[in-house]
Each structure stands twice: as structure tokens, then as C-alpha cells.
Specification:
Blueprint (H helix, E strand, L loop, with lengths): L1 H8 L7 H16 L3 H17 L14 E2 L4 E11 L5 E10 L6 E3 L4 E9 L11 H4 L2 E8 L2 E9 L6 E3 L6 E2 L4 E5 L3 E8 L2 E3 L6 E2 L5 E5 L4
Antiparallel strand pairs: 1-14, 2-3, 2-13, 3-11, 4-10, 5-6, 5-9, 6-7, 7-11, 8-10, 12-14
Helix pairs in contact: 2-3
């Protein structure tokens, strides 16, 4: 629907409005009643929320056979792994750690159809620790396109207490279209087939909707 597309593409993620609007109103009220120190604190919190929940427009000019990074942040792991639950094949997993300074809206690495969206409750351990992909709260998004399946996993971290998905099973998504948001520091994993070769390195900084993550083997 057009209104849903408009919400996804808004420059501020809708999840931040419940913090942004009250903090701005409070700053005005505190200023009017001469509570200047509280007004300053409120306006600083307002500015932080504007920064944190920003949703800049993103698009990629990379060839369509390339997968684009689903998240902003640092590549913390590149690993060959068998993913049997959703994919049923040996995949390459790239893990991306998102700091407080990252844009926290996650984007589709390719154009395709959403096959499944599965939410799993869990812990809120530090996102860079081992086994958080199995223990922490997480959201699985399975995409299908060009006769291939790709898995994106949103994983809540120590500060993250909410994962919001913008997509549902059966939806069609464009490459770089917003998939959802994780609030306040987290991790995103992407699993893709070994018919792709990874284009990023460990500890590299990547940008959602911009950085090419993998390309079909044999292409340049």
C-alpha cells in the first residue's frame, strides 16, 4: 500500500516518534516555566532521538546480481556455516555489528519475495558475544529471488529491547527497501549461498543499501 511505503521511506523511523514528540514538547514547557536545565536536557534527548531514528534514503547502482549490505556497521564475522532450519544448505554468514551511531533501519539485500518472517524471544546479551544468534531475541526474514534463498537475521543486543519488522510473508520487496528496525545497538546476520563470493573483509565498515556485500562467482 502507498501509505505503508511512505512510512518506510520517511526520513525519521516511525518508532522514534513516541520519544521525539514528547521530548520536544517537554523542552518547550520547561523553557516556558523557566526550568532551563531541564529544557536543555530535554532538547538534547530530542536531538539524540532525531539522530538515532534517522532513516536516510538509500539506493545502489551496483549490478543487480550483487547482494547489498542489509545494515550499517562493522563486519565482525565471515563464516561458512550450515543453516538447515530456513535454507537447507551450507551458506556464507556475514555478521554486522551496529553501534549507537549506526542507522538502525535494516534493508533488503536483494529484490524478491518474503517467504517467512519468524520472531524468536530470547536474551539481551552483548551483540558481539558468541552464540547470541541462538540465544538473543531475534527476527528471521527469509527472502527468495532469482531461484535463490537469502536469510537476514535481526538480533537484539544489550541495549536493544525491540525489533520491529516492516515486512510480512508474501510481500514483494525491492533491493534496498527497508525491512525493519532494531533499537539501540544490535547485530544483523546475512546468510547467502556459496555461489556468491564475499566482497567485504573482516572489520570493514559497511552501509545498508549502499555497500556491495557479495557477487556471483565468475562475475566482475
Amino acid at each position: 500500500m502507498d501509505w505503508e511505503k511512505g512510512v518506510k521511506e520517511a526520513l525519521i523511523a516511525k518508532e522514534g516518534l513516541k520519544l521525539i514528540i514528547p521530548s520536544f514538547v517537554l523542552s518547550i514547557i520547561f523553557y516556558i516555566f523557566f526550568y532551563y536545565s531541564l529544557a536543555v536536557l530535554s532538547i538534547l534527548f530530542f536531538l539524540f532521538c532525531l539522530f538515532f531514528f534517522r532513516n536516510p534514503r538509500r539506493s545502489s547502482r551496483e549490478p543487480m546480481d550483487r547482494l547489498i549490505s542489509p545494515a550499517d556497521g562493522k563486519v565482525t564475522e565471515i563464516k561458512d556455516i550450515v543453516e538447515n532450519e530456513f535454507l537447507g544448505y551450507e551458506a556464507i554468514r556475514v555478521s554486522i555489528f551496529m553501534s549507537l551511531a549506526s542507522v538502525h533501519v535494516n534493508r533488503s539485500p536483494m529484490a524478491g519475495r518474503i517467504m517467512q518472517v519468524v520472531h524468536r524471544p530470547g536474551k539481551f546479551a552483548l551483540a558481539w558475544k558468541a552464540d547470541v544468534d541462538q540465544e538473543n531475541e531475534r527476527n528471521y526474514i527469509l527472502l527468495s529471488g532469482n531461484n535463490e534463498k537469502i536469510l537476514v537475521v535481526q538480533i537484539a543486543g544489550f541495549l536493544a529491547r525491540r525489533i520491529t519488522s516492516y515486512v510480512h510473508a508474501g510481500d514483494t520487496v525491492a533491493r534496498c527497501e527497508p525491512l525493519g528496525i532494531i533499537a539501540f545497538g544490535s547485530r544483523v546476520d546475512i546468510y547467502f549461498p556459496k555461489s556468491y563470493e564475499c566482497m567485504v573483509k573482516l572489520h570493514e565498515m559497511v552501509t545498508a543499501g549502499k555497500t556491495p556485500l557479495a557477487r556471483k562467482r565468475g562475475t566482475s
